[in-house]
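A student in our group prepared the protein record below, which I am reviewing. Here is the record exactly as it was handed to me.
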Amino acid sequence: MSSGTGDPRYRLAADNRRARFDFEIGDVFEAGIMLTGTEIKSLRGGRSTIGDSYAAEKGGEVWLYNAYIPEYLQANQFNHETRRPRKLLLHKKEIAKLSQAVQRQGMTIVALKIYFNEKGRAKVEIALARGKKEHDKRQTEKARDWNREKGRLMRDKG
């Protein structure tokens, strides 16, 4: 799996930064996404959000729900619905692994980011995740604050 951020060949279209705070991230998968022409053009504009989106298995396929891709202004009447379910393209083994984890272990499939790969194809990075409790979130915040403070102290001393 490749991350869509550090490599210059990848261009980030949408990022779910809150997911790592709200969930414990497990296995990460890269999936293709079926989009219409106006959705692709709108994604390239970079104003889409996936903060509330999730994926679920339905009828042997995985669908991305609640991802917001704004309307493409130049499309007039041929525009797309902004929050429609979108089919994710995965191998059958990956779909089976995702659906088993959701059914047996009570996990959630969260969308982490949408990006364009080196061929210009839109990809979605999804992950199996387990929701964090409130005290886990506080621990994460405390560790992040300490690391930030430690960095400041090291910078000031050195």
